[in-house]
Amino acid sequence: MRRLALLGGEPAFATALHVGRPNIGDRERFFAYANQMFDSRRLTNSGPLVEEFEQELCRFLGVKHCIPVCNATAGLQIAIRSLGMQGEVIMPSFTFIATAHALQWQGITPVFADIDPQTYTLDPDAVEASITPRTTGIIGVHLWGRSCDVDGLARVASRHNLKLLYDAAHAFGCGYRGRMLGTFGDAEVFSFHATKFFNTFEGGAISTEDDAPADLIRLQTDFGFSGYDKVESIGTNGKMTEVAAAMGLTNLASLDHFISANLHNYQTYQRVLADIPGLTLITDDSAECSNYQYVIVDVDAAKAGLSRDTLLRVLHAENVLARRYFWPGCHEQEPYRTLYPEAGQRLPHTRHVAERVLTLPTGTAVGPQEIESIGDILRTAVASLPRRRE
Ligand code: T4K
């Protein structure tokens, strides 16, 4: 049996294995796009590569509009404003902090509603129970690429005349009942950050089927300009650059390869973790298309005899930089912790789940041998470390 690095053994990996290591498509293809960009001397402001990227995104998703932006956080801010959200907006606390910041940044109160512990996404009943006269919208998060209950949320939104936006930062290439995510609600926002399986260095896109918000989104992404010297609305600078679009076009050509590498890793983890007591790989619905970009393990401390955080320390000592996406929940982070100290009382499932889940490395930088070693480390830890006292 291996001697764990936490107990003085040699770390399993000499160089760190990260969650979020970028996938990089064909370099020659990227350099050809970059040369095209340099030759044209068009570096940003709706250049030809961004236009081509936008068309490719629309084609891939089967959506009418998919407007590239500089990152998903700016994309969320622009979408929130373009949809006219104000007052209070209901969202999960169990998400990356950017979802909450995008609201609070514009003076809108994020109201945290609980998740369904089976799906890890916003529970439509909890949303309905959180509605007040100040509520103007809902932001569902397709967490780890798993779709929200889009039918349930759509019913609540339509019953109460609320705007419905999806944070689809993790969900590029994922589906719901045969339809691509990106085609639901009033709008959806993707992230193409370097740590996402599909990246444009930094970047994102806002998709919508409706022309009216799309027009406003385009205006607000470019300072409100509708033409030379003509400003029609408040706006910001949310534009994607040409070099980011070059990376997007390059990586789109490798998308199938990225997804199949993720799927292969996911299946390897499924096999390797199957016999470890207390550890359960959170499975994707095999009937839906998925990007498999997040490998999430649920740690049942009573059965494993170790807490999630002990396993995290074990892995870090071995140079496996697993993450706790998304502990402890937005409501436990500033400024929300101070502004809304009572929020946690309505979030029992969020608290329960946030203390149990662990995100493991995957992507094209990780292969079966590394996953076998990670399994070996976890199996050894569960079998040999002293059982925790409850
Ligand atoms: N909504 C949701 C639900 C989100 O998850 C996110 C972002 C957003 C909205 C906002 O999207 P953007 O505005 O970013 O487009 C990372 C990402 O920065 C963030 O984009 C992402 N979610 C979040 C889940 O993960 P951190 O603070 O965990 O990043 P960091 O710097 O610790 O990097 C993670 C790991 O990736 C590191 O171990 C190193 C590795 N890495 C990272 C980068 C940037 C690399 O190997 N190479 C790299 O270039 O937030």
Output the strand order for the largest sheet: 2-10-9-6-5-3-4
SS strand fraction: 15-25%
- The 3D shape can be described as globular
Distance between the termini: 27 Å
Q: What do we call the CATH topology of the largest domain?
A: Aspartate Aminotransferase, domain 2
Helix percentage range: 25-40%
Q: Can you summarize the main beta sheet?
A: 7 strands, mixed
What does this structure look like?
With 390 residues, the protein is α/β, with parallel strands linked by helices. The chain has 2 domains: 111 residues, Aspartate Aminotransferase, domain 1 (Alpha-Beta Complex), CATH 3.90.1150.10; 226 residues, 3-Layer(aba) Sandwich (Aspartate Aminotransferase, domain 2), CATH 3.40.640.10. Helix content is 37%, strand content 16%. The chain has a 7-stranded mixed β-sheet, with helices on both faces. The chain has a 3-stranded antiparallel β-sheet with strand order 13-14-16. α3 packs across α7. The longest helix has 19 residues. Ligand T4K binds next to α3 and α4.
Write out key terms for the chains shown.
14 helices; 390 residues; 7-stranded mixed sheet; 3-stranded antiparallel sheet; binds ligand T4K; 16% strand; single chain; alpha/beta; Aspartate Aminotransferase, domain 2; Aspartate Aminotransferase, domain 1
Concise synopsis of the structure shown:
The chain has 390 residues and is an alpha/beta fold.
